[in-house]
Design a protein that fits this description.
Blueprint (H helix, E strand, L loop, with lengths): L17 H5 L25 E9 L2 E12 L2 E18 L5 E20 L2 E8 L2 E4 L2 E15 L4 E15 L11 E10 L2 E9 L2 E11 L2 E8 L3 E2 L4 E2 L5 E10 L2 E9 L5 E9 L2
Length: about 280
């Protein structure tokens, strides 16, 4: 298992919803998407409920939440979580002395306001993590803006994980894995193309095709996450990803697959319900 993902709150770099994952994280400029409760809150929309889960190398990522609309205001609340499964504990000699688990919970509260061509969003996060006899918690926020140039073009600015670790795991407080994204989206009839640049993670992009209202497919490309403390690439969520969306009445199902570097391909699924 890639233990680098478990250092402090580094896992916050990983998207918490299936649709964002298989779009290669190039999703910040999309609007009226329930999955944006766990990404750019300025793109949050469509009242209802959502849940998502995916895993790799025994790590399980998941999220669930609800969104409600009130005229130009949209409010959302949810929870994202991570569990490692069993990890072998060793002594100074490298001998096994038992097992432990790492888990984390992140309550999320988000709001969005539509003002003409501007969509303004904010989100509060309160991550809590525990590993063996150690635990840590923090507080942070996301801020996002989406501007609609016209029906085809939109642009976004998105700041993620702006916050602080309040209580350290052992003796040192780690920085949140903050990033800032500049994105654009071009929609032409049933085709969407998004391109984003993230500081410090680099470029990502996605291409989607809606065959009709009930079926959509997408392919994404993500340069890859990095371990901020050592400036080394994790190669998690890197390379190509692929997914489909199937809709039946008010039920939406997202199925995707994404590369997790040397750990192979992870399968992911999400379900949403509402109008």
């Amino acid at each position: 298992m890639n233990i680098l993902l478990l250092i402090s709150f580094t896992f916050l770099s990983v998207p918490a919803h299936s649709r964002i994952v298989y779009f290669g994280s190039a999703f910040s400029s999309y609007q009226d998407e329930r999955g944006n409760l766990f990404w750019n809150p300025a793109g949050m929309g469509k009242r209802g409920y959502l849940a998502s889960i995916y895993s790799y190398s025994d790590l399980i990522f998941g999220s669930f939440g609800t969104i409600q609309k009130f005229d130009d205001f949209t409010l959302g609340a949810g929870l994202q979580f991570l569990n490692s499964g069993d990890i072998t504990k060793t002594n100074m000699m490298g001998d096994s002395i038992g097992k432990f688990s790492y888990y984390s919970f992140v309550p999320v509260i988000a709001g969005k306001y539509r003002m003409g061509r501007f969509n303004l969003g904010g989100k509060l996060i309160f991550p809590y993590s525990s590993a063996d006899d150690y635990n840590s918690f923090g507080a942070g926020m996301d801020l996002g803006i989406i501007y609609e140039l016209n029906k085809s073009f939109s642009f976004s600015l998105y700041g993620r994980n702006i916050g602080r670790q309040i209580d350290e795991f052992v003796s040192k407080r780690e920085n949140f894995p903050s990033e800032f994204r500049l994105g654009s989206l071009y929609n032409w009839e049933n085709v969407g193309f998004a391109l984003e640049y993230s500081i410090p993670f680099g470029f990502c992009s996605s291409l989607s095709l809606a065959l009709n209202r009930n079926f959509e497919m997408a392919i994404g490309y993500n340069y890859g996450l990095k371990d901020l403390s050592n400036d080394r690439s994790l190669y998690a969520l890197s390379g190509l990803s692929f997914g489909i969306r199937v809709r039946y009445r008010d039920i939406v199902i997202d199925l995707g697959s994404v590369l997790y570097g040397p750990f192979g391909i992870s399968k992911t699924i999400a379900i949403g319900y509402g109008s």
